Amino acid sequence: MNEMMIVVTGLLTAGGTSYITYSFTKSKYKQEVEKLKVEVTHAKEYVETTAIENDIKLSGHYKEILDDLKARYETRYKEFEEMMTRKILLLEEELKLKDRKIKLQQQEITELKKENRTLRNHARNSIT
After folding, report:
1. Whole-model pTM above 0.70?
2. C-alpha span between 110 and 117 (Å, rounded)
3. Which range, 5-19, 34-48, 57-71, 79-93, has the best average confidence (pLDDT)?
4. Does Coiled coil count among this protein's keywords (predicted)?
5. Looking at residues 68-72, what average pLDDT do you find?
6. Where are the beta strands (DSSP E) in 1-128?
């Protein structure tokens, strides 16, 4: 009977030890799971924060590009406007020169007509 008691006591001790070990292990695993959940939550927050910071940096970069593009566009527009102004002035000068040329040619035509009349009159007078 003593032996039976020893066996029963051994079984109870082994069972109790197993149960206590199971309880502690379960508690430990729960704590580890909670710790991992917290770490995952922190990681998600970090990723979201990093994504927001990257978006802010990217939007700043796009703003710089657009500001630079605006400055370049304005510079090119001013250059184009100055070039067109110079071209208009050149065309106006060309028109003035052509007007002068037309007036000179009209004067030449008038003088040639007078000379032609004079030569006709002289030819008529010399024939008669």
Report:
1. no
2. 11
3. 79-93
4. yes
5. 90
6. none
Query: Above pLDDT 90, what percent of the chain?
Result: 41
- State phi, psi for 44 to the nearest 5 degrees: -60, -45
- Cα maximum dimension of the chain: 182
Residue whose structure tokens are 């004067």: 107
Structural tokens at position 64: 């710089």
With H, G, I as helix, E, B as strand and everything else as coil, classify residue 97.
Answer: helix
Pseudo-torsion of CA 65, 66, 69, 75, nearest 10°? Answer: -130
Alpha-carbon 71 to chain mean position: 13
- For 13, the token pair is 């001790």
Q: Which amino acid appears at position 55 of this protein?
A: D
Written as six digits, the tokens of 55 are: 């978006």
